[in-house]
Specification:
single chain; about 190 residues; alpha+beta; Nucleotide Exchange Factor Grpe, Chain A, domain 2; three-stranded antiparallel sheet; three-stranded mixed sheet; 6 strands; elongated
Amino acid sequence: MTTPDDRGPGQSEKPDRQQEVDDLPLDAPAEPEAEAGSDAASTVEAQLAEAEERLLRARAEIENVRNRARREYEDLLRYREMDLLRDILPVLDNIERAIEASEKTADLESLRAGFKMTGQQIEKLLETHGCQTIATEGVDFDPNVHEAILQQPTADAPAGSVIGVASRGYRLHDRVVRPAQVIVAARNS
């Protein structure tokens, strides 16, 4: 495009469209509009078909990802205890050995020591899997983690404190697996 400053002498100012028309050769054949329209329509149809095919492929891929994720989640739920079972089987083996040993010997001290070691092995296994024993010694009764099975009057401990344990409680991370069954101190009457 020329500006008024770029024009030489004798050039008149023409609109841009007029200048383009003037630059065309006179003997150039004109394209029929019907032919141009059908080419454009076929190009648009081809692009539309390609876009639809990409959309179908994307939908199929999303469905495949969903199905694979669902299968993996179901397998995870189905086999979630596998690690725990692998860890607990040696403990079961030790219990079976202790039972066999009890049938062959009358030495109660060695049996007691064997069962004590097996209990320690189970406690360590539980800790490995994130399971902790709920504290009961010298603590106040907490209904969130303790289950009171008995109240007993005593002068040795303040009222509302745990003075005995019937069965230990366990917590997995931040959830209570089983509350500790405890005996709670009551006021002397």
